Amino acid sequence: MPAQQPSSGSRLGRRNDPERREKIIDACLEVIAQAGVTGTSHRKVAAQAGVPLGAMTYYFDGMDDLLHSAFSRFATSISTGFERRMATATDRESACDAVFERILEASSGQGHELILSHELYTLATRDASFRSITTWWMGRSQLALGAHFDPLTARLLDAMIEGLTIHRALDAEPRDPEEIKSAIARIVGA
Asked: Which whole number is the average pLDDT over 90-100?
């Protein structure tokens, strides 16, 4: 799923700053978090990255390529963090605790994760070419959960993580964290 690795040079064969592509991807995620996908342009991303506008075409074959690369990086980062968290669980109870902590963290509104997730979901809903990213992300989450739960429970927990994160983040009233623990217990049959 993750975007293809870049070649070492530009399309014209000239060597470029190897970190420039990564800087552009980081800048793209920042612009998306600030302006949304529809407000993201090559010009804004280049300005955020501090690179010449013309450099964008050396690294990306248009806005879709840039968005695919940025959202692939984002999904990989979130997935890797979740896998690490689930890998620390030593039993079913600690796995449930890890899921609880993930929901609290993701719904906290800290950083750009919530905004970027929703931007990706909306884009994937509108453009099927981005569903490969969300499908891969869900699959990776379910594999991490699958180390502790049967496949159906892992799938239900993954859906619950996304759903409760959205509800907690967007609810006008603060919610009791015990609701999360109760939901997890119901799904895992505890």
From this structure: 96
